[in-house]
Design brief:
Shape: globular
Largest sheet: 4 strands, antiparallel
Number of domains: 1
Number of helices: 3
Helix content: 25-40%
Order of helices and strands: EHEEHHE
Radius of gyration: 13 Å
Distance between the termini: 10 Å
CATH topology: Alpha-Beta Plaits
Structural class: alpha+beta
Number of strands: 4
Strand order of the largest sheet: 2-3-1-4
CATH architecture: 2-Layer Sandwich
Length: 93
Amino acid sequence: MLLLTVHLTIQPGQVVAFMPRALENATKSRAEPGCRQFDVLIDSQDPTRVMLYEIYDSEAAFEVHQQSAHFKRYVAEAVPLLIERERHFWKFA
């Protein structure tokens, strides 16, 4: 299995534009074969800080996810609204 955490900082004033795009991506990702979990978490003290928590059956499942139309739309529409996007890949022991 593969776990991915993505730490995001949204540009000030762009939270309202960003969140529907992130939530749509998460919802559609959960329906993909090989995606076990996809959560969008918002910092309780700063709504411009968001974390994506994703679990996939394998690296191959994650690669399929990255080729999906909804992920490509998210990258094109949501990522430009960010100041920072830091991805961390984890493997289960």
